[in-house]
Structure formats: structure tokens, C-alpha cells
Amino acid sequence: KCNTFSQEVNSSTFGNAMMELFLEKFSLEELADMPLEELAEFLQTKGKNRFGDPKCVASTIQKAVRSSYRLDKVVEDSIDILLGTSIAVIRTYQQQIKELEKSIKRIMDGLSQTLESIHGIGPVFAAGIIAEIGQIERFDDETKIAKYAGLYWRTHQSGRFIAENTSLSRNGNHYLRYYLVEAANSVRRHISDYQEYYVKKYNEVPKHQHKRALVLTARKLVRLVDALLRSHQLFTPERCVKV
């Protein structure tokens, strides 16, 4: 419908305001000729006032519309139907995700807030990690948890050196690995010690920097997770130094 939209407009195509815009029966000509203030107000209303500069976004939308080629009426109608159907499916998934997150939060509210006390870890990540680890007593120490998650490298690698092309083990619990890696990516944005560690590992190699640094940061996070679950204590910044 608007082939240059994603290149011109600096906003998510799947945001609420943009999906509402595509759902409305605006033709490209109507969007191009709409007063800038009116389009900006539409975006702010549908986007719940989340646009910092709605006029700028409205202007880029109109620029994208004017530079897009026009479709045949039959083709445009078909695309409108497809867009409407796709958006309805997306919104169904979004609503289901919200309901699941509420259910997870209700369950987690009845459990110890140990992992949620770590800045950057919410109920979803905490629930996933706890569910996959189960009873912490199953593991002798944090190295066993890391191995269970597949956060280890092959034994033929020399010492503690991990080259940029060294493959991570493909064994282990993939779900636990996912939760730990995603949690580490969030934690590093909230705790400076983890961000500094991530940056250090990122700068050690010329290739695969982000993936390697993130996995190593997740491996560091395992030590903290193990310590908190065993002690049943909440996170404090001092623990970053200890682990």
C-alpha cells in the first residue's frame, strides 16, 4: 500500500498508531492531502501521546505516501483486506501475551522475589529461569547449572581462552539458555557491573562481538542466580563484586 513506508518513517510499523492508520480507510491521496495538524493529532490520539514530535512523524508519513507508487483499485482492496486480517491476528497475539503475563505475575507474587530483585529481571524471566532450574539443590554448584543450560565451551579449548570462532555447546536446556541470555541482556542495561563486563568481552574479539559478549554475560549471571536461589536472599549491588 505504501512501499517506501519502512524506509521513510522512523516508527514501528506494528505500533498501535501505525496499525490504526493502516486500518482506517484512508487512500494514499487522502493521507497525502490531509492537513499536517490533523494527521499529527490522529497519531497522538491512537498512539496515546507517545510521540515526542507527532508533526515530524506525520510529515515523514506524507513524504512516504507521496513517493510511493499507486496500486490498481482491485489490488489495493485486496491489500487492505490482508492488512486488516494481519493486524487482527497481531492484536489477538498481543492480547494473549498480556493475559499470560498477568497469569505469570500472579503466580510469581506468591513466590520468593529473589530473582525479581535483580534489576532488569521481571516476572517472566524470573518465572522461566525458576521453572527450568526447578529445585536449586539438584545442582552441586553454578557450574552444573551453566552446563545444564549449555553455557559452556568444548573441553579441547585451551584454558579459559574463548576465541571469536569457538562454538558454544549445542547441548543443554535450550529454554533455560534462552531465559538466561535474554535476562543477561536486560540486566546489563540496569547494572553497571554487567554492562562493563559485556563491553570488555565485546572488545576482546573482532567478530561475533555481541553474541559472544552476551553469552559470557549470561554465564556471569548464572553465578548470581545460583547464589541468590541458594541463600534465599534479595539482590544487593555488593553481590556483583562477590560473583
From TrEMBL:
One of its GO terms (biological process) is DNA transposition. InterPro entries: Transpos_IS110, Transposase_20. Pfam families: Transposase_20. One of its GO terms (molecular function) is transposase activity. Residues 113-198 form the Transposase IS116/IS110/IS902 C-terminal domain. PANTHER family: TRANSPOSASE FOR INSERTION SEQUENCE ELEMENT IS1111A, TRANSPOSASE-RELATED. This is Transposase IS116/IS110/IS902 C-terminal domain-containing protein. It comes from Bacillus cereus VD196.
